Amino acid sequence: MKRLISALVLAFMLCASAAFAADKEAVILAAFGTSEPAAKVALDDLGAAYTAKGHDIIWSFSSDIIRNKLHGQGEHVYAIDEALAKAASMGAKTVRVQSLHIVPAEEYVKTERRVAAYLAKNPAQFNKVYMGHSLLESTSDLAAVVKAVSAALPAERKSTDAVVFMGHGNDRGPGDLIISSAAHALHSADPMFWLASVEGSNTLDKVFADVKASKAKRVWLVPFMIVAGDHARNDLAGPEEDSWASQFKAAGFEVHSILNGLGSNKAIQSLFLEHTHNTRDELLSGKKN
Ligand code: CO
């Protein structure tokens, strides 16, 4: 009898561990990437938010240029297909790929296309592969992001100070359209908020005159990007004549630049986690379920 019970217990344990293995899940965090150690803090913070929720995470960078640059410095960061291969080698059967891009533009599309190509070549490796969509996917995401970036402004910012956010932007497609929506949403949340982008139609020129006309004496320059990398450090806050900081200084403003990426913002981290958990975009079944 005792032997039978222990045999049953053993059988149960084997079943339980088999079930656990079948359900083993990995999260691939797919960022654009950065090669600046100071900017990487925002990615580390985001990763820590996932780890704190018990996720096994694997990093991948969608920027080939950044991966190649890091590779030259002896650091190997996975491309998305390498990250998928790593998930398979870890025994993951469910994979959640979470885009850490702001909008579903060039880098997001590239990531998704490469995931699809990998799955076409390796159709049997996983049971489920979910795509977690980028930050601004819906009007409720946009409202949450407006709230998150407003709440993160320093206490010293007075309501009469202008705040100019720098998005990356894209010269075509939905990215450009979403950045326009974000600019409108921010400006309606606070009439002293403006958003412009490095690329695309929402240029600084389009808002510069309005910021000047607001009679603000001070302007806060804030990255609207996951990391405060090259664009934030040079194009936004850098000493070159054409940086946004220099242009506002030349126009008589007292300029304060903030060099935090959105990835360090707890409310933004929660929104990404929500996208990871709530997505119904499962790629292997070929349909939304
Ligand atoms: Co760029």
Our estimate of the beta-strand percent is: 15-25%
Spatial strand order of the main sheet: 2-1-3-4
Q: Cofactors and ligands present? A: cobalt (II) ion
List unreliable stretches of 5+ residues.
none
Helix content: 40-55%
State the total count of DSSP E strands.
Answer: 10
Describe the biggest sheet? 4 strands, parallel
Elements, N to C (H/E): HEHEHHEHEHEHEHEHHEHEE
Report on this structure.
- With 289 residues, the protein is of the alpha/beta class.
- 48% of the residues lie in helices and 17% in strands.
- The protein is built from eleven helices and ten strands.
- It has helices at 2-23, 37-52, 64-72, 80-89, 106-121, 139-151, 173-189, 205-213, 230-236, 244-250, 266-278, and strands at residues 25-31, 57-61, 94-99, 128-132, 162-167, 193-197, 218-223, 254-257, 281-282, 287-288.
- The chain has a four-stranded parallel beta sheet with strand order 2-1-3-4, with helices on both faces. Strands 6-5-7-8 form a four-stranded parallel beta sheet.
- Helix 2 crosses helix 11.
- The longest helix is centred in the N-terminal third of the chain and has 22 residues, at 2-23.
- It is elongated.
- The mean pLDDT is 93.
- The protein binds cobalt (II) ion.
- Cobalt (II) ion (CO) binds at residues 168, 198, 231.
